[in-house]
Every structure is written in C-alpha cells, then in structure tokens.
Prior knowledge:
- Two copies of one chain form a homodimer.
- Helices cover 29% and strands 33% of the residues of chain A.
- The first copy, chain A, is built from two helices and five strands, in the order E-H-E-E-H-E-E.
- In chain A, strands 2-3-1-4 form a four-stranded antiparallel beta sheet, covered by helices on one side.
- In chain A, a hairpin with a 2-residue loop joins strand 2 (31-34) and strand 3.
- Chain A is globular.
Amino acid sequence: xxxxxxxxxxxxxxxxxxxxxxxxxxxxxxxxxxxxxxxxxxxxxxxxxxxxxxxxxxxxxxxxxxxxxxxxxxxxxxxxxxxxxxxxxxxx
Amino acid sequence: xxxxxxxxxxxxxxxxxxxxxxxxxxxxxxxxxxxxxxxxxxxxxxxxxxxxxxxxxxxxxxxxxxxxxxxxxxxxxxxxxxxxxxxxxxxx
Lengths: 92, 92
C-alpha cells in the first residue's frame, strides 16, 4: 500500500514537543519529502503500527493528520517542483 | 484525475506574498484540506492551467510543490484524524 501522510500539528499546549515526536515516528516508517509530508510503501500491519504510535501523541482537538493510501504505487504519479527535502533532514 | 497538491513556500525574499498568491490559485482549482494541502478532481487541461498559474510565482530555488495524481479517485483511500480545515478558510 502506497501511503502519503500529511500533518498539521498545532503549536498550542506544548505543540513543539508533539511535533518533534510525530516527526520522528513518521520518519521511522516513511520518507520525509516536504515540510510536513511523508510518503512510502507500507504493509497494512505497518500502517496499523504507525497509527498506534501516532495516536499516543496526536491531539484530535488541535492537530490534523491525513493519510492517503493507494493500493499500488503505479496508480500514483508524482511531480515535484523546486527544492527537494534534504534526505538527511532529521528535523523539519 | 484525482490530485493532491502540497506546497512548502519559503518566507525568504517576500515569501509571504508568494504564499498568499499560491494559496489563492490553489483554492481556485482545489479543496483546501489542511495547512498547505489541497485536493480535488481535475481534468488534464485544468492541471496544466493550474501549473501555468503557479509557475509565475513559485521560486524553484526556494519553494517546493509536490503534485500527486491518481487516475481514479476510487484508487485512493483517505483517512483524516483530528480537526478538519474550515471549509470557509480563505487564508491559511
């Protein structure tokens, strides 16, 4: 399953700490391709594990996470303009 | 063609103005679903028109735009956690 994950973490109520945790969790499972955008090929089990980890930190009343899933990477074309995320970026 | 567009506009060199222009152009073609994330169903012609408009403002050395395209919306599942973008948001 090809996954695109985008998040918008509020800076309210210690949001910086949440942001750093969410970023690190996403980096474990997916490629960081833009500011708050990650993508990658995951199994259903990995998706469940990723969501379980995120669920501990994400505040449903403050933050937003969208996960797009395509059953096959071939069904998804991608076009990138401008600068690419630095592959070694460990923090956004 | 189902499109997901994400952008990361640098605040350098008058970036706030670029951001506002890019946001308004994207709003013309797509639904604003999260901070810098838009989605919607577009024809090939509309995608070309959107890109032509964005191309005037986006700085390839500073900004980043990623366009994911799925030939069919049915091939793309979407999951949303937390707060939804306010449908009437006219500025991020």
